[in-house]
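Hi all, posting the design record for the shared folder.

TITLE: backbone redesign
STEP: 1 of 1
STRUCTURE INPUT:
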């Protein structure tokens, strides 16, 4: 009877998650595919009522290498669809107010390298935190409407419609991440994370979900 009680006590103390993955050896690498939503910060030229381009569809792939059971190097490639931001500017022409409106289109693709710390060992569920750097290629185009000045009885065009771009820039920025890895089988898993990109403040917020495989 005492042996049975000791066995039951030991079973309770040993985490049930210890058989989540193959007992030995643990996987050394993984690959994954993700979908997500980008939120890009772009300051308005004058009125800062809408400085974010929201809900941009995102897709990406990545791979990771485990240095230890907890430390993992991660490499990701991803791209988003184009999103628009509408802008207005006010100025004066011959003492009369004039307004210029435009539509800014932005698209970003990026490669991200980071180091992650994954909690728990050989478990069904692994939260993690990470930090690294990202190189993004940003394409922008801005379409301007003509500027019309209204006098008492007449109107006149002071600036024609025009387009600036597309222009391409490479952006380097820091990345911070929190996320999780949840196993569905011993090798396949669901992944989800939130990333913050930093460049003179928060430059982008990215939410991702996807699936992957250990090998």
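Okay, here is what came back for every position:
SEQUENCE:
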């Amino acid at each position: 009877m005492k042996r049975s009680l000791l066995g039951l006590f030991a079973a309770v103390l040993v985490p049930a998650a210890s058989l989540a993955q193959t007992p030995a050896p643990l996987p050394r690498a993984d690959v994954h595919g993700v979908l997500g939503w980008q939120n890009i910060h772009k300051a308005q030229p004058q009125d800062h009522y809408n400085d974010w381009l929201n809900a941009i569809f995102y897709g990406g792939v990545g791979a990771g290498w485990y240095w230890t059971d907890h430390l993992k190097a991660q490499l990701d490639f991803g791209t988003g669809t184009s999103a628009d931001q509408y802008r207005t500017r006010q100025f004066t022409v011959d003492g009369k107010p004039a307004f210029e409106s435009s539509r800014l289109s932005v698209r970003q693709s990026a490669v991200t390298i980071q180091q992650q710390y994954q909690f728990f060992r050989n478990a069904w569920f692994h939260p993690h935190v990470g930090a690294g750097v990202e190189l993004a290629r940003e394409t922008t185009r801005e379409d301007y409407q003509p500027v019309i000045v209204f006098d008492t009885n007449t109107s006149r065009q002071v600036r024609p419609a025009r387009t600036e771009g597309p222009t391409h820039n490479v952006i380097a920025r820091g990345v911070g991440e929190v996320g999780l890895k949840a196993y569905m089988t011993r090798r396949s898993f669901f992944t989800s994370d939130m990333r913050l990109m930093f460049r003179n403040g928060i430059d982008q917020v990215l939410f991702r979900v996807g699936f992957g495989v250990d090998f």
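COMMENT: Confidence is low (pLDDT under 50) at residues 1-19.
Let me know if anyone wants the other runs.
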